[in-house]
Design goal:
5-stranded parallel beta sheet; binds thymidine-5'-diphosphate; Rossmann fold
Length: 215
């Protein structure tokens, strides 16, 4: 099962991934977690180019580098793990490219981005996407104390566009689950566990997915 987490910077994605990891470990359910861009040696090298270079990067170059990092992660790590029927959690996936490069930057038209996303993901799609939705100004306040990377420094207008991009995806894609990121982390976590439990039961109606109902 492929579970992805999405949302603008400062939405609380990392906290939720940590809570889900603890839940899975406690229940002895095997899983792997990767972050995008990153997760393999090649992809981590691309990540440092993307997030830490100060020189101007052409928007199409940026789009292709995110996609290149993704292709390597999916082929090298994610596909083999999914074949073993394990859970893979991705901290961002191609919806980030649609929202950030497509809607935020306007690096290319959405149709081209969609084609590129499919290519870079080797045609894999998430089963469940959790979108932690937060007002861009509130998110900005949350991260204002941290040292910002190149993309986080892009400004509020940019994040409004990214946010609108995610909202559009949420309307179009059934796999999207919109979570109010301003609720407490525990409440959001319980929603996440329940949604995964429901999904598992819809896949294997006979299996008693007791584990997921325990919380
Ligand atoms: P990261 O430090 O991992 O941020 P976060 O914890 O918010 O995920 O940096 C990833 C940055 O890269 C983030 O600002 C979103 C951006 N990004 C894109 O612009 N396009 C993409 O396709 C991906 C995967 C990330």
């Amino acid at each position: 099962m492929l579970i992805t987490f999405e949302g603008i910077d400062g939405c609380g994605k990392s906290t939720q991934i940590e809570l889900l990891k603890s839940f899975l470990s406690k229940n002895k359910i095997e899983y792997s977690v990767f972050r995008e861009p990153g997760g393999t040696e090649i992809s981590e090298r691309i990540r440092s180019l993307l997030l830490h270079e100060t020189d101007d990067m052409n928007p199409v170059t940026e789009l292709l580098l995110f996609s290149a990092a993704r292709s390597q992660l999916i082929s090298e790590k994610v596909m083999p793990i999914l074949k073993q029927n394990q859970i893979v959690i991705l901290d961002r996936f191609f919806d980030s490219t649609t929202a950030y490069q497509g809607h935020g930057r306007g690096s290319a038209d959405l149709k081209s981005i969609h084609t590129l996303n499919r290519l870079a993901a080797h045609a894999i799609k998430p089963d469940i996407t959790f979108y932690l939705k937060i007002d861009p100004e509130k998110a900005e306040q949350r991260i204002s104390g941290n040292l910002k990377d190149r993309l986080e420094s892009a400004g509020n207008d940019f994040f409004k566009k990214v946010s609108a991009g995610y909202d559009q995806l949420a309307r179009e894609e059934n796999r999207f689950h919109v979570l109010d990121a301003e609720q407490s982390p525990e409440v959001i976590h319980r929603e996440i566990v329940s949604i995964i439990g429901d999904f598992q039961q819809s896949q294997e109606p006979d299996a008693a997915s007791k584990t997921w109902k325990e919380v």
